[in-house]
Amino acid sequence: GEKSSQSSATVANPNAQRQRNSMLLWFWSLDGTVYGVYWLCMKALCDWWLEELLLVDHEMGWTVQFFLHKVHSWSSCITHNSNPLLEGHKCYAIQQTHMYHKLA
Hints:
Blueprint: H1 9-12, E1 29-30, E2 33-34, H2 36-79, H3 87-103
Antiparallel strand pairs: 1-2
């Protein structure tokens, strides 16, 4: 209200002594309750979630790249192997290739 929007000459004077705790800005104190700590906690929580979002985005990209690497790895076992694979080994490699391709 009225009191929270008022300013004093002491606080407005940057060279005055012992003014650090004399008057809070309006958003630090509303109706006698201090909201600054709550605001800082919410700001920290918001920053934390933004960081988590960034990390999850990168981790998803890394995971997809890993699966694509496994597709390439298993495909190369089938096609670039100098020794022909046994039929069971070839089927397993094809199965692994398809599985990692679906995951990617």
